[in-house]
């Protein structure tokens, strides 16, 4: 047997309803905030991620699924959702339309990581992107959207961590301070971080190696180095969130795993699924669009891991919707009536009522057992008598109650139930 690739997962027909529930909720919440869906390709030119995500990040250094296509072009499977959106925004001239542009996506994301609980090689993200506004109200809006989705799903235990990692101006002073700090302890850092020391010392703060994390614990904090503009923006955002009743903690250790962030960064963290508890990460990336070849365009957004979100819902015993079993099962009483049952089901379906009949040559008794197990809401036993009188007994499975309904009225009656 050929098995599933390491770090990937099937969604079987018995659990896809959970995904529909989460995705439908996400789409609905996004719509109430005025966001429209954007879909971009599953693979892009590798160059886009090198420039967009950043060459000193773990994603680009270690995690990309990169391949040469038959025309010898280097392609990479989507390793996050934002770079493709930025490319599409530029390529489709979306920036020329009235701004801001508010978009959301649901996409597979591919990263070559060491698979473990909550860490896959293909996972899925719901994300939003708000382009064309520098206002702290825009930062607040995307944070509120993430929070609304989380709460609509019934989760109350996620903690919001907030930070600002400053712009190009503040980053200069902060990078210098980080270099001084880490250089003094360079031999203790992992080899990758030793390299990061010169190119992008901020990345050391995001290293997953224990020895680096231990050293990073006492590193200078970025909030001490913010320029006036960044400080004002960060304070305004905090005021808005407080006014909206959002509780959060300022956590200067959050820097996020992608190079494109400027200013605001945030994470929603769960305490119910162990160490891999970051369900949602986001922030502001005012330089990204320019970085991938567009006009300077401020942007803010987040990515939310759907597998981790579902893990949290399951860990907390929260609802994930219910299996999508058709409403009604039509059971022919005899072999000769199979065709009649099949036609009746066809008519119900045409009227928009979900319906099934036997496709497995089961006896009537076996069909009853099957219908019970599958959890149809209604059952119709179709025999000669019913066909002659033009009336069937519509049985509600849960209560066992029956009522007589004319066959011609079935689509209407069932449609209204
Ligand atoms: P982590 O620090 O856990 O590696 P990250 O910073 O790489 O996360 P982002 O790039 O911000 O994560 O992705 C957004 C969200 O996608 C994460 O908060 C997480 O919920 C989810 N996610 C990221 N990588 C994976 C993965 N390998 N498997 C499952 N979910 C993931
Ligand atoms: Mg990661």
UniProtKB/TrEMBL annotation:
InterPro entries: aa-tRNA-synth_II (IPR006195), aa-tRNA-synth_II/BPL/LPL (IPR045864), Anticodon-bd (IPR004154), Anticodon-bd_dom_sf (IPR036621), His-tRNA-ligase (IPR015807), HisRS-like_core (IPR041715), HisRS/HisZ (IPR004516), HisRS_anticodon (IPR033656). One of its GO terms (molecular function) is transferase activity. GO terms for cellular component: cytoplasm. SUPFAM superfamilies: Class II aaRS ABD-related, Class II aaRS and biotin synthetases. Keywords: Aminoacyl-tRNA synthetase, ATP-binding, Cytoplasm, Ligase, Nucleotide-binding, Protein biosynthesis. L-histidine binds at residues 80-82, 111, 125, 129, 256, 260-261. Residues 22-326 form the Aminoacyl-transfer RNA synthetases class-II family profile domain. Its main location: cytoplasm. It is found in: Cytoplasm. GO terms for biological process: histidyl-tRNA aminoacylation. It catalyses: tRNA(His) + L-histidine + ATP = L-histidyl-tRNA(His) + AMP + diphosphate + H(+). CDD domains: HisRS-like_core, HisRS_anticodon. Homodimer. Belongs to the class-II aminoacyl-tRNA synthetase family. PANTHER family: HISTIDINE--TRNA LIGASE, MITOCHONDRIAL-RELATED, HISTIDYL-TRNA SYNTHETASE. This is Histidine--tRNA ligase. The lineage of its organism: Bacteria, Bacillati, Bacillota, Clostridia, Eubacteriales. The gene is hisS.
């Amino acid at each position: 047997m050929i098995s599933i690739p390491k770090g990937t997962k099937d969604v079987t027909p018995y659990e896809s309803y959970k995904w529909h529930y989460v995705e439908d909720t996400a789409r609905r919440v996004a719509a109430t905030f005025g966001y429209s869906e954007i879909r971009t390709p599953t693979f892009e030119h590798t160059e886009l991620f090198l420039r967009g995500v950043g060459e000193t990040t773990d994603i680009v250094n270690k995690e990309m699924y990169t391949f040469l296509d038959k025309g010898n072009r280097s392609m990479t499977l989507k390793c996050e959702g934002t770079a493709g959106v930025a490319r599409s925004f530029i390529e489709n001239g979306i920036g020329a339309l009235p701004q801001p542009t508010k978009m959301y996506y649901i996409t597979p994301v591919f990263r070559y990581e060491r698979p473990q609980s909550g860490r896959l090689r293909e996972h899925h993200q719901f994300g939003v992107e708000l382009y064309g506004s520098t206002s702290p109200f825009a930062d607040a809006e995307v944070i509120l959207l993430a929070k609304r989705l989380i709460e609509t799903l019934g989760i109350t235990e996620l903690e919001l961590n907030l930070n600002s990692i400053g712009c190009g101006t503040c980053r200069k002073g902060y990078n210098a301070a980080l270099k001084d700090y880490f250089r003094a302890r360079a031999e203790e850092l992992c080899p990758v971080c030793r390299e990061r020391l010169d190119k992008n010392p901020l990345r050391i703060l995001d290293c997953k190696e224990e020895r680096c994390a231990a050293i990073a614990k006492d590193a200078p904090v970025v909030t001490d180095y913010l320029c006036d503009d960044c400080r004002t923006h960060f304070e305004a955002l905090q005021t808005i969130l407080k006014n909206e009743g959002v509780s959060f903690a300022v956590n200067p250790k959050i820097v996020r795993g992608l190079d494109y962030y400027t200013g605001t960064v945030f994470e929603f963290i769960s305490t119910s699924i162990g160490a891999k508890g970051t369900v949602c990460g986001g922030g502001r990336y005012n330089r990204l669009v320019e970085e991938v070849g567009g006009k300077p365009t401020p942007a803010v957004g987040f990515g939310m891991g759907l597998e981790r979100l579902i893990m949290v819902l399951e860990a907390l015993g929260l609802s994930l919707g219910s299996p999508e079993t058709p409403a009604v099962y039509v059971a022919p009483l005899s072999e000769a009536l199979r065709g009649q049952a099949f036609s009746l089901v066809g008519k119900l379906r045409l009227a928009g009522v979900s319906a099934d009949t036997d496709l497995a040559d089961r006896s009537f008794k076996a069909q009853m057992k099957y219908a019970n197990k599958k959890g149809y809401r209604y059952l119709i036993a179709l025999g000669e008598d019913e066909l002659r009188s033009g009336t069937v007994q519509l049985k509600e499975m849960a209560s066992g109650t029956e009522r007589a309904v004319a066959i011609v009225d079935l689509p209407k009656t069932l449609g209204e139930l």
